[in-house]
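In this section we walk through a basic example: taking a raw amino acid sequence and producing a predicted 3D structure, encoded as discrete structure tokens. The instruction is simple. Fold the sequence below.
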Amino acid sequence: MTDRPVLRRCVACRQLLDRRQLWRVIRDHQDGVLLDQGMGRSAYLCPNEDCLEEARRRKRLQKALRCQVHDAVLEALDQRLRHSTEESAEAN
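The resulting token sequence is shown next.
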């Protein structure tokens, strides 16, 4: 029996994708908003500039997580995006 992918929807573009292709942002009951690890309410975001900007501009993560998302979390995602684009540019 083959494993079916677990699908999640990006909060910005609303595209349904395998959750391994998306960034996971979690509202933890103790530590606030976390990236990738933890238990709690989750929101998913495509790892691209357009979706990150859309999420920032329209406060999509705040709405999905039902809490305030600090700029530090968005900056961490921005850094992650820049780092991944630098790696792909070096690979070519």
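Looking at the output, two observations stand out. Strands lie at 7-9, 16-18, 23-28, 32-35, 41-45. The chain has one domain: 7-91. In the next section we compare this with other chains.
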